[in-house]
Write a structure and sequence with these properties.
Blueprint lengths: L2 H10 L1 H16 L7 H26 L8 H18 L4 H24 L5 H20 L9 H8 L13 H28 L6 H23 L6 H19 L1 H11 L1 H6 L4 H27 L10 H11 L11 H21 L3 H26 L1
Helix pairs in contact: 2-15, 3-9, 3-10, 3-13, 3-14, 3-15, 4-5, 4-6, 4-13, 5-13, 8-9, 10-11, 11-13, 14-15, 14-16, 15-16
Protein name: Xylose transport system permease protein XylH
Subcellular location: Cell membrane
InterPro entries: ABC_transp_permease
Length: 386
């Protein structure tokens, strides 16, 4: 492989390589406990909110490096409202879910209005939201914890897909789903390749695509195999997968997705080309509010309670995952798959250090250094490309 191609390959897959190295490091340091089936399951359960919030945060960052500081407080507030409706008021679980989604969307619309149509800086609006909704959470909860959540609600998030084949010690349904997911990925990859060839676009070498498909398929099947050795496929993973697929499609295949990248690249040029930039900003922050509500639903299900400290520092994990996953601090670049890699890396670091018994304060130091390193890499890479 030529030197230029090696450099391009390393730049493109830097975070994937880092993720593999970090997993191997913690597997070694924990004597293999890192990849035990139960810990693989915990990686999903404990970091589901990161995957969900980071997906929405990417849309905000794409618009020009903007962020939403309020998501942690919104998660807490939505959870407080939902718990009050379902536990204290004894309302139906599905009514509670609708109320939580409506509250999250309303918050997103509120903040999106000031950011998009009144042009108040996102940092100021969301900083105000962070303070407001944390205060409202405490008012709703009156400083107390509401628990437990209804069993019907917990079943939507904390249960597992039934093994239809009745496997003993190994969830065959989970493994089969992994094989099907890998097959679909391969099919989509080569269908996209054939489509590009027909249109006369440049494509990667066939050997590169084959190697990439082989590696990703092995990872998918291996991951599902480990889950199958515990309890199988958790419902939480399905929620994450649906959200990732929807927003992955929005950012890569739709007009509004292209507009997000265009505004982040050059807002003035985007306006001159006829893009309604106000509408795009509004869309990004309204979606962030909606996804914060989903993260709030997931959080109270995992904790089986709503408490005044829920969602603390969630915004930092979401922002960090985006930057680690390759989103530019200046906006205009970043992908949903990259964000998922970043969120997974954050989750692996959290889980690995927890298993090793490292103090929580040192965990924050390490995560801060990782985020800083990712942004420095992005900035320096852009300088070198110029």
């Amino acid at each position: 492989m030529e030197k230029g191609k090696v450099s391009e390959f390393l730049k493109k897959y830097t975070m994937v390589i880092v993720l593999v190295i970090v997993v191997l490091f913690f597997t070694w340091q924990t004597g293999g406990r890192m990849i035990l089936p139960q810990n693989v399951n915990n990686l999903i359960a404990q970091n589901a909110y990161v995957f969900i919030l980071a997906t929405g945060m990417l849309l905000c960052i794409l618009t020009g490096g903007n962020i939403d500081l309020s998501v942690g407080s919104v998660v807490c507030f939505v959870g407080a409202v939902g718990a009050t409706v379902m536990v204290n008021m004894k309302m139906n679980v599905f009514i509670g879910i609708i109320v939580m989604l409506a509250v999250g969307l309303a918050i997103g619309v509120w903040q999106g209005f000031w950011i998009a149509y009144r042009r108040i800086p996102p940092f100021v609006v969301t900083l105000a939201g962070m303070l407001m909704f944390r205060g409202l959470s405490n008012i709703v909860l009156d400083g107390f914890t509401i628990a437990p959540m209804p069993q019907g609600y917990l079943n939507l998030f904390n249960s597992y897909i039934i093994d239809f084949f009745g496997g003993q010690g190994l969830n065959i349904t989970c493994v089969l789903i992994g094989v099907i997911a890998a097959a679909i990925f391969i099919l989509i990859t080569f269908k996209g390749r054939m489509s590009k060839i027909k249109k006369g676009y440049a494509v990667n070498k066939a050997s590169n695509d084959i190697i990439r498909c082989a590696i990703i398929s092995i990872v998918i099947i291996g991951f599902m195999w480990r889950l199958a050795q515990y309890k199988g496929l958790p419902n939480m993973l399905l929620w994450i997968a649906v959200i990732v697929l929807i927003y992955g499609y929005i950012t890569s295949k739709t007009t509004i997705g292209r507009h997000l990248y265009a505004i982040g690249g050059n807002e003035k040029a985007a306006q001159l080309s006829g893009i309604n930039t106000n509408k795009v900003y509004f869309f990004a922050y309204a979606n962030m509010g909606l996804l914060a509500a989903v993260a709030g639903m997931v959080t109270i299900a995992r904790l089986n309670s709503a408490n005044p400290t829920a969602g603390d520092s969630y915004e930092m994990d979401a922002i960090g995952s985006c930057f680690i996953g390759g989103a530019s601090a200046y906006g205009g670049s970043g992908t949903i798959p990259g964000v998922i890699i970043g969120a997974t890396l954050m989750g692996v670091i959290n889980l690995g250090m927890s298993i090793m018994g490292i103090d929580m304060n040192w965990q924050k130091v390490v995560k801060g250094l990782v985020v800083l390193a990712a942004v420095i890499f992005d900035v320096e890479s852009k300088k070198n490309s110029r």
